[in-house]
């Protein structure tokens, strides 16, 4: 009896371990022998990259994952991705099959992944397909008009073509905005109806990172709370939980999270040291970011206008090349205010402030509270920042 029980427990434990294994069997519909194909995914935040040699138009990937996870399959070893050479999909801890054309991933078919089926269904609703067709047709028409512009010498005719191009650009902007709304609505509906889906936390994470003012933090948090315990245990679920904390702590009305390190002159820099004394504008940027550098003349203007009243600017750089960072500070003549390198300080400040893209600017009042947050660069944003800073020093 004890022997039978031991054997049963052995097979049970084997099955439980086997459930964490994945096998991705691939078939290439065109001759791709001797070439390689690549797979990338994450386990608890750590990126895993695998390669497989194609033999007899077949390839295979194996590994271990605890939960369905988003992955990329690509023909480029450095994952320079296009629609033709790559596909984002969901990898499951099971045996999966994939069929693809090595030179055109638009026709890729993936079987035995429930999460990927859900993901594909969301990407390919009838409404989205119609909208994409309209967008593609307008882009094609724009290219046609642009070609005509090059071949025409008559200025009056060029002006007419330019008016048509401007009209098409306006239509395209409207369709892109409409597409964003369609995506958001379909994703919200899916999350509400499918709290057991492993793609739900990734969808919520994406919505959270967009920082859409029309979608409140509480709305996203409530949807997270309704996710199943199993989904919350997944990497996507854990990542979302962490970002929700960071997002809450870095939103308008919150006490600005403290950070410290060395500035560009090797002096100690700590945000909390400015509390009760200075109003601080955090400027997240990089030397290679065009819009970031285009904002420097504006930053100079407001700095010299308000520095004596109590304004401090801390420019936070995500530059990997520190020499380029330092040279850019000198080239742009912005040495007067504080400069902080994420790389040099090995800082998690971007996570703490939920910054996923640049430029981002965050205004902190003298009490240390976040009173403004802006993503991107525009005349409207600059006007809002100056208006708010002006109001701070009037009060």
TrEMBL record:
InterPro entries membership: DUF4369, Thioredoxin-like_fold, Thioredoxin-like_sf, Thioredoxin_CS, Thioredoxin_domain, Thioredoxin_ResA/DsbE_sf
Database matches in PROSITE patterns: THIOREDOXIN_1, THIOREDOXIN_2
Keyword Metal-binding applies: no
Locations listed in the record: Cell envelope
Residues annotated as signal peptide: 1-20
Ranges in coiled-coil conformation: 158-185
UniProt superkingdom: Bacteria
UniProt organism field: Flavobacterium endoglycinae
Keyword terms: Coiled coil, Cytochrome c-type biogenesis, Disulfide bond, Redox-active center, Signal
Chief location of this protein within or outside the cell: other
Protein name: AhpC/TSA family protein
CDD domains reported in the protein's UniProt record: TlpA_like_family (cd02966)
Domain Thioredoxin stretches: 250-394
């Amino acid at each position: 009896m004890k022997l039978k029980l031991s054997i049963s427990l052995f097979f049970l434990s084997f099955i439980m371990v086997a459930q964490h294994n994945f096998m991705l069997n691939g078939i290439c519909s065109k001759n791709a022998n001797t070439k390689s194909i690549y797979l990338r995914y994450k386990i608890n935040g750590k990126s895993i990259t695998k390669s497989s040699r194609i033999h007899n138009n077949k390839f295979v990937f194996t590994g271990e994952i605890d939960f369905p996870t988003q992955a990329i399959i690509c023909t480029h070893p450095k994952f320079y991705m296009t629609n033709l050479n790559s596909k984002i999909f969901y990898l499951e801890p099971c045996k999966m099959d994939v069929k693809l054309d090595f030179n055109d991933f638009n026709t890729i078919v993936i079987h035995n992944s429930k999460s990927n089926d859900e993901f594909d269904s969301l990407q390919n609703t009838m409404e989205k397909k119609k909208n994409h067709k309209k967008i593609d047709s307008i882009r094609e028409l724009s290219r046609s008009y642009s070609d005509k512009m090059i071949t025409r010498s008559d200025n009056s005719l060029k002006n007419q073509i330019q008016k048509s191009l401007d009209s098409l650009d306006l239509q395209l902007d409207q369709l892109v905005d409409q597409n964003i709304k369609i995506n958001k609505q379909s994703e919200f509906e899916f999350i509400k109806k499918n709290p057991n889906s492993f793609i739900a936390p990734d969808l919520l994470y994406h919505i959270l990172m967009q920082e859409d003012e029309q979608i409140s933090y509480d709305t996203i948090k409530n949807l997270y709370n309704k996710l199943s315990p199993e989904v919350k245990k997944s990497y996507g679920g854990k990542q979302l939980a962490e970002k929700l904390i960071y997002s809450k702590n870095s939103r308008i009305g919150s006490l600005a999270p403290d950070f410290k390190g060395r500035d560009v002159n090797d002096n100690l820099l700590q945000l909390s040291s400015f509390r009760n004394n200075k109003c601080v504008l955090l400027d997240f940027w990089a030397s290679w970011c065009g819009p970031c550098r285009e904002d420097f003349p504006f930053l100079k203007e407001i700095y010299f206008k308000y520095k004596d009243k109590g304004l401090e600017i801390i420019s936070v750089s995500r530059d990997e090349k520190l020499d380029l960072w330092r040279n850019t500070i000198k080239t742009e003549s912005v040495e007067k205010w504080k400069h902080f390198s994420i790389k040099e300080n090995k800082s998690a400040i971007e996570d703490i402030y939920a910054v996923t893209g640049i430029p981002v600017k965050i205004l902190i009042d003298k009490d240390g509270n976040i009173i403004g947050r802006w993503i991107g660069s525009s005349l409207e944003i600059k006007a809002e920042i100056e208006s708010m800073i002006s109001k701070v020093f009037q009060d």
